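Table 4 source record.
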Amino acid sequence: MNLREVLVPGCESWVLYRRHVTKLEQFHMRCLWRIAHVKWQNHIPNTEVRQICSISGIEALLISAQLRWTGHIIRMSESGLPKQAFYSQLEHGTCSHGGQQKRYKDMLKACSIDLKELETLAEDRSSWRAMCKALVQHFESERVTELKKKRSLREAGGRPTAGGFTCVTCGRICASRIGLYSHRRTHPHP
């Protein structure tokens, strides 16, 4: 039995929000820590635990499953209910308060797939699989490098300079205006 069968059965048709991915990722990492016999006291980052277990993140697994299912839907006959639901549009309706809910097609936009070329890409199964695998690998490598960069920045004690507020006395960069105000109080007054 593999991870997809136990943790995320039917994830191909889910509409994923960040909060869902975060919860699944937390559970997935707790399981990997137990499998790899890693304790939190060891201070081993999640990226290294994934390398020890030679497994990618749960978000990459979800994206891979969803891309695979999208290819099946596109190659399906016109009378198939999933294909009809995939291509259907609402004729009339009202916008809900608080912003619109995500649709399944929004996930494809996040993967940088042009919806106009989607049908031609999915017709050839082998090229579709290769493209999906390349997209997921690119996504996972970008995510890992971003996590490593954030960790090294955090360990160095620095803060990102973009959007920061700089102290004119000592040059320290504070993340917020209020933080800069409280930092200025540490300097002696002239």
